[in-house]
Write a structure and sequence with these properties.
455 residues; alpha/beta; FAD/NAD(P)-binding domain; D-Amino Acid Oxidase, Chain A, domain 2; 2 domains; eight-stranded mixed beta sheet; 11 helices; 18 strands; 27% helix; globular; FAD/NAD-bd_sf; oxidoreductase
Length: 455
């Protein structure tokens, strides 16, 4: 209608409609749904890899411009290489290397250098007799990957060695401990997110504050070997609803990346994924849903102190130091049957009193005198199938790529995941790390890749 008005009055700039300066462009090459750290990492790597400057028009769409409910900034901010799967170990090693040299990648001219506040105090996993053999197997897997890719060190500690190194720990019930000596610790999540965003925007990525509410797509029906019709979709445009407004903008695009985190399953449903006949590919949903996790900030002047690692007790309770002055953050994942309500981000303080504090006080007696000073809740993009990331194209949508389902380790793996997705899109396959095992194939074949070290 704007065009018609301009055609009717060619000599005038008058328009019956006020132009919204925040509307996304009408066309883009690549639209990334989700402006968390994974989405912005993908955007950065796409621009970094483009052969001609400005050749790719990349738009990142984020529905929460304040990031007040974003999983990235509400996480505990840890990074570790102590995983059981080679793919996760490799992602951690590559991401840790990126973070150590972050200003070589994300420095922006005439802007302050990036300070991640990367505290490399290590992760300390404690194992009971029941799970000590798993820790030994994980240690062997890590050692193989270290030998293959280099850059990490992990040591196993007996209870006596553990007590000598960390005198404040009660070692009762601990049979074995695994301690990361390098490339492990924690950092500021907001700084990493903002660094990726700032750099990507400086390279020409367009930021859009809005919510993707629908897709326009074409359907191509083909018959498989069994004689069944299979519908293949190709996205033509993305509908972006502007915040606090009835206004929306359809955006034509060639490729869509679903990096919507905890809500990526809902984005996939807009394309009919999961609504097909049962026992068919079209009937398999993207197995990613939001799971609420609590993080509690506690104050304990007599606590472990500056040498505190990111400790993961075999009870599932974790804690780490938070700055100086006797502050710590702590949390734990609830049992499957006790998953909290995801309709809000309210904190359950009774969960701390009943499930977390007893384990904290048992493992670190000084924590008997702690005081909770604040708390928050955030969402995991929880992969209900095997708690591992899903990276790659959906088999029935030939221009939508996924980077989701990391179940709590998306933040720490975001630098390497972003590069991997950019390689898939621009090169057609993985170049630096082979992450093909994290594709949709395992879900279709019902062959989970179970990660034993989920926190």
């Amino acid at each position: 209608m704007r065009k018609r008005a301009a055609d009717a009055l060619p000599g005038s700039s008058w328009s019956p409609f006020e132009l919204n300066p925040h509307l996304p462009p009408e066309r883009a090459d690549i639209v990334i749904v989700g402006g968390g750290v994974v989405g912005w990492s993908i955007a950065y790597w796409l621009k970094q890899k483009e052969r001609v400057r400005g050749a790719l028009k990349v738009v990142v769409v984020e529905k929460d411009p304040t990031y007040s409910q974003a999983s990235t900034v509400l996480s505990a901010g840890g990074i570790r290489q102590q995983f059981s799967l080679p793919e996760n170990i490799q992602l951690s090693l590559a991401s840790a290397d990126f973070m150590r040299n972050i200003n070589e990648h994300l420095d922006v001219l005439n802007e302050d250098p990036v300070d991640l506040q990367f505290n490399q105090s290590g992760y300390l996993f404690l194992a009971s007799e029941k799970v000590a053999h798993i820790m030994e197997e994980n240690y062997k897997n890590i050692s193989i990957q270290i030998f293959k890719y280099a850059g990490a060190k992990v040591s196993l500690l007996s209870p006596t060695q553990l007590k000598d190194k960390f005198p404040w720990i009660n070692t009762d019930g601990v049979v074995l401990a695994s301690y990361g000596l390098e490339n492990e610790g924690w950092f500021d999540p907001w700084t990493l997110l903002n660094a990726f965003r700032r750099k990507a925007i400086s390279m020409g990525v367009i930021q859009c504050c809005g919510e993707v509410t629908d897709f326009q797509y074409t359907v191509n029906v083909m018959t498989n070997a069994a004689g069944d019709n299979v519908e293949f979709r190709r996205i033509k445009s993305v509908k972006v609803q502007m915040p606090h407004s009835l206004e929306y903008q359809p955006m034509e695009c060639a490729i869509v990346v679903n990096a919507a985190g905890a809500f990526s399953g809902k984005v996939a449903e807009m394309l009919g994924i999961g609504f097909g006949p049962k026992d068919t590919i079209a009937g398999i949903p993207v197995p990613v849903e939001p799971r609420k996790r609590y993080v509690y900030v506690v104050h304990c002047p007599d606590g472990p102190g500056l040498d505190t690692p990111f400790l993961i007790d075999y009870s599932g309770v974790y804690f780490r130091r938070e700055g100086l002055g006797g502050n710590y953050i702590a949390g734990a994942s609830p049992e499957e049957a006790e998953e909290p309500d995801i309709s809000n981000l309210e904190v359950d303080h009774q969960f701390f009193e009943e499930k977390i504090w007893p384990s904290l006080a048992y493992r670190v007696p000084a924590f008997e005198r702690l005081k909770v000073t604040s708390a928050w809740a955030g969402f995991y993009d929880y992969n209900t199938f095997d708690q591992n990331g899903i990276i790659g194209m959906h088999p029935l949508v030939n221009n939508m790529y996924f980077a989701t389902g990391f179940s709590g380790h998306g933040l720490q793996h975001s630098p390497a995941v972003g590069r991997a997705v950019a390689e898939l899109i621009l090169d057609g396959n993985f170049k630096t790390l082979d992450l093909s095992e994290l594709s949709f194939k395992r879900i279709l074949a019902q062959e989970p890749m179970l990660e034993r070290n989920i926190v």
